[in-house]
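About this split. The held-out portion is used to measure sequence recovery: a designer receives only the structure tokens and must propose an amino acid at every position. Recovery is the fraction of positions where the proposal matches the reference. Here is one held-out target exactly as it appears in the evaluation file.
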């Protein structure tokens, strides 16, 4: 799904949506320290809320207004990395076009957009510097998918990390690595021979349904790129065919089995990043509770 400025901030303030997709690490052998646990959804919500409130405090101290961004933009918003495979969701939402439109409309009419539109160019630029830092320098980590990821070691987002997690370099390196590993996992699943075999059966199935396609994600992206009433009228029947074929041909089950298998492999390969990130998250929970409680009482 595509989200704009608000979602960029939400991800930057904690990387929690991607983090939540990884399950607990398996126990190590005897004599090895137990790996850090994965956080519960409520704990991830707490950390995100605290981070957003800290950003809000920091921005206010610099003379700017800031509206905290929810961790989940919409209750019905779903991510399907291997194509839509939930038949009921497809029947109700197609490919999620209306959810996306509603979120865009709410964002355009919301206080954040009105506030930004009322700022002169120099103040708008200063707002970006206050939030994100003057440049993407100071924090860097090798991207497991290739290249280098960097972020400013200044700005209110980094300040919120410092208050919650302490060592911002370790936090950025570990959490950003984990976030990027989601794409690595999706790529490995997509290249697995079992997935490609199941994909051929899925392609034949949707073709018989009148929606020829070679890959469900490409089919979805191409459909969402089409505009107008005629295109939108096809969203639900096409998404439903995609999901029903994913179920009937075994593509959905194959993708989920491979998803779990590669999750285990990737966690083993990058255990240090997962462990560091999770230990920092657990350690940050008391501070996060204090931040949320302080704001609730203010």
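Reference sequence for scoring:
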């Amino acid at each position: 799904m595509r989200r704009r400025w608000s979602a960029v901030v939400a991800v930057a303030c904690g990387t929690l949506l991607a983090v939540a997709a990884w399950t607990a690490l398996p126990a190590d052998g005897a004599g090895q320290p137990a790996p850090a646990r994965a956080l519960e959804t409520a704990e991830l919500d707490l950390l995100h809320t605290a981070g957003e409130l800290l950003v809000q405090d920091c921005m206010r101290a610099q003379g700017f207004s800031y509206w905290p961004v929810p961790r989940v933009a919409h209750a019905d918003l779903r991510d399907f990395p291997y194509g839509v495979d939930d038949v009921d969701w497809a029947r109700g939402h197609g490919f999620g076009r209306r959810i996306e439109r509603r979120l865009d409309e709410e964002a355009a009419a919301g206080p954040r957009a009105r506030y930004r539109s009322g700022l002169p160019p120099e103040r708008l630029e200063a707002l970006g510097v206050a939030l994100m830092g003057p440049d993407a320098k100071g924090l860097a980590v090798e991207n497991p998918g290739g290249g280098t990821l960097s972020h400013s070691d200044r700005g209110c987002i980094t300040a919120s990390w410092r208050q919650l997690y302490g060592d911002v370099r370790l936090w950025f390196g570990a959490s950003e690595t984990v976030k990027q590993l989601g794409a690595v996992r999706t790529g490995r699943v997509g290249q697995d021979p079992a997935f490609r075999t199941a994909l051929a059966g899925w392609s034949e199935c949707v073709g018989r349904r009148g929606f020829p396609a070679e890959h469900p994600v490409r089919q979805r992206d191409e459909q969402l790129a089409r505009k107008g009433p005629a295109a939108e009228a096809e969203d639900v029947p096409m998404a439903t065919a995609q999901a029903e074929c994913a179920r009937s041909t075994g593509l959905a089950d194959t993708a989920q089995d491979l998803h779990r298998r590669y999750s285990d492999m990737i966690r083993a390969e990058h255990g240090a990043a997962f462990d560091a990130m999770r230990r920092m998250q657990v350690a940050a929970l008391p501070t996060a509770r204090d931040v949320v409680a302080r704001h609730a009482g203010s």
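Annotator remark: The longest strand covers residues 138-142.
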